[in-house]
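User: Show me a protein chain along with its predicted structure.
Assistant: Here is one chain, sequence first, then structure tokens.
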Amino acid sequence: MWVQRLARSLLPTPSKFCRQISARIVNESQVEVQEPSKNSKPLTFPGVWLRDNCLCGECFHGSSESRKLDWDNFDTRIRPLNLRTEPATQEVIIQWSDSHESRYAWEWLKERSFEGHRQEQYLTDFYRPQTRHWAGAEFQEIAQHFDYEEVLTSDSVLEEWLQSLAIYGVALLRNSPLDKGVVRHLAERVGFIRRTTYGEEFIVQAKPGAQNFAYLSLPLPLHTDLPYYEYKPSVNILHCLVQTESPGGSNLLVDAFHVADRLRQEHPEDFERLCRVPVDWNDIGSEEGREFHNIWRAPVIWWVTIYLSFLIPIPFPIPPPSLDAQGRYTRINHSVPQRDSHFNVPLEEVLPWYESYARFVRMARSDAHAFKTRPGDVLTFNNIRLLHGRTGYDDSEQNSRYIVGAYLDWDIIYSRLRVLKKRAVQEEI
């Protein structure tokens, strides 16, 4: 694992036990470094990358770990002229064509190897954990449970929770106090709450004259929250304080990435259409005296513009950029109540889109897993990936349902997870 390699790189190694590295210039522009071992292979590094990543005080700001190289005058045709190795420190020392000298530790270089398998380890072990998509029938297998107090007090349990959330998109915390402050304490254990139109914390309960469809006791169809936001909140935290004793009120969850996988395999034309056709998502209303009118246009299966199409075979001529740079989905948008009546697409696209969307909705509903949280449970799930809903329930003063919610952003979660992984490595040394 990449994190384990990081641990080894932080360990001091006495020079007399070091395997002496060797280095040479290749094709006038690259540097090849090798550790003497029967099984070792030379690692090749582009000269321009090495010069760009010089760690001397002139080129690199150590306390902020930031490059300060003068890129206004950077020569991309830079060449290594001479090099030598330093046995005592396991370093490669390079003299450049711009008269600069740089030093690179062998362990530092290995961590940044251009070998495909090493890069894949870094991307899936440290950058972002590899997701595992799941069918509704697998929910009991993949949904991991954690103790609320242990998450608050133990960094290792906190890491396990966030890792599970990143991989499966859902995790459940048990035994929390029946206190409205739980979601804030949990969010601040990770970072900070993501504020939306509805504030920081929000209450999910049946309300007369509700301004949001979720605040009714009617069945709540599967959806993602806030698809009308360009920067949609990433993770839901839902703390159950009071649960209805009526037969309804069950949570519904479905992994929409799994539904997209199936759609792509079984109905590629529908998949392509839902990746391509933009939909207007909106939210109109007021909250605490503030009026709002949110709109965001994006397909149901949403994408970024950077992707590597060769990672996954695509069943149509032009691959839709519905995948991120590692060939993964980036976001699902779906909410029937929040789909605008404005549909700004060519006339001939309308009926085919409705047919594709209806298929997606049917497949999602048939795969949804239903379960009921109990007071003290905190349900956390990926709002970018999972659809969630709720069965209807009878609401009265004697039989109510009271949920406190908040959001976190994945940027904050992934940052915290990396810090925890690095800290755990340092504590092992």
